[in-house]
Design goal:
With 293 residues, the protein is mostly helical. It has 11 helices and no strands. Helix 6 packs across helix 11 and helix 9 crosses helix 11. The longest helix is centred in the N-terminal third of the chain and has 42 residues. The chain is globular, with a radius of gyration of 21 Å.
Length: 293
């Protein structure tokens, strides 16, 4: 209670604490972004081996090393140097090491501190927006999931069920007591979010014979609908499509990307989902206010 009182009395302390927590979570999200697709790939391969060669699978299971979000310890991909705790301080360690491995001096990707900084800043912003309330924590969980999904999809064009489905169920639980919207709007939002992109997927496939998006996009929009309600779905679709179109055109013009190149849609859905969380009500009111009649 004393800590809660301190948060309420000294807002900068509350926001600073939230930002610091966000930085640490961002460090963990880097692990999730890097390892979860590898874990999924290993699981798929193992399922194939179990089905096609069950005898080989039984032998291999005894010597297979553990690989998950906890073990083994993070290490330099170039020299195998194990990252120590002092080398793993979010953003600070990257700056202190000048963006290089302490052992072999190989450059470390700028994206690692970028993810940490982004997570910290957005967590602090969410804390400021919601104040000292449980919704700040729930909103932070929502944002952390969107960040992980954004970078995983950008890397692999995959949106893991291990994140999208728990995110959807958590959204329904948050709204069980009317956290962001009423439960009815949340349930309709989850169903409509899935069916909306599912319908677009099949319409596009029937017309062109090609798949325009993956099933993970359906599940992500369902999760966003579960959190924000069906009322926000038009805004999310509009914003994500607009951002995706701008980025796609910029890629063609500036980078010479082919017109038919596959672009992950998840990052744009995630960005629109965050915008709708913070400014959705205002944007909807503004839009409705500009409609004739």
């Amino acid at each position: 209670m004393e800590l809660i009182d301190a948060f309420r009395t000294v807002p900068w302390f509350y926001i600073g604490t939230a930002t610091t927590v966000g930085l640490m979570v961002g460090s963990f999200l880097n692990v999730v972004i890097h390892r979860l697709p590898k874990m999924m790939d290993a699981e798929w391969r193992q399922q194939c081996i179990d089905f096609l060669h069950p005898e080989e699978a039984a032998k291999a299971s005894d010597i297979k090393p553990r690989y998950n979000l906890i073990v083994p310890r993070s290490a330099c991909p170039s020299c195998g140097h194990k990252i120590t705790a002092i080398e793993n301080i979010p953003v600070v360690s990257y700056l202190a090491l000048r963006g290089k491995c302490r052992a072999c001096k190989t450059s470390i990707s700028l994206r690692y501190p970028a993810v940490e900084a982004l997570t910290g800043l957005l967590t602090g912003f969410v804390a400021w927006h919601y104040g000292v309330a449980w919704m700040a924590l729930f909103a932070a969980l929502y944002v952390w999931a969107l960040i992980a999904l954004t970078f995983i999809d950008a890397d692999t064009t995959l949106l893991p069920d291990d994140i999208t489905l728990p995110l959807m169920w958590l959204g329904l639980l948050v709204n069980l007591g009317g956290g962001i919207v009423d439960l009815r709007s949340a349930v309709i939002g989850a169903v409509a979010g899935y069916l909306l992109l599912w319908s677009v997927f099949w319409a596009f496939k029937l017309i062109t014979g090609k798949e325009g998006m993956g099933y993970g996009d359906f599940k992500l929009l369902a999760a966003i609908g579960a959190w924000l309600g069906w009322q926000m779905l038009p805004l999310v679709i509009l914003v994500s499509a607009a951002v995706g179109t701008i980025v796609g055109i910029a890629g063609i013009v500036l980078q010479g990307r082919e017109k038919g190149a596959k672009l992950p849609f998840g990052p744009y859905l995630a960005a629109a989902g965050f915008i709708a969380l913070i400014w959705g009500q205002q944007l909807n009111l503004w839009y409705l206010g500009r409609m004739p009649g």
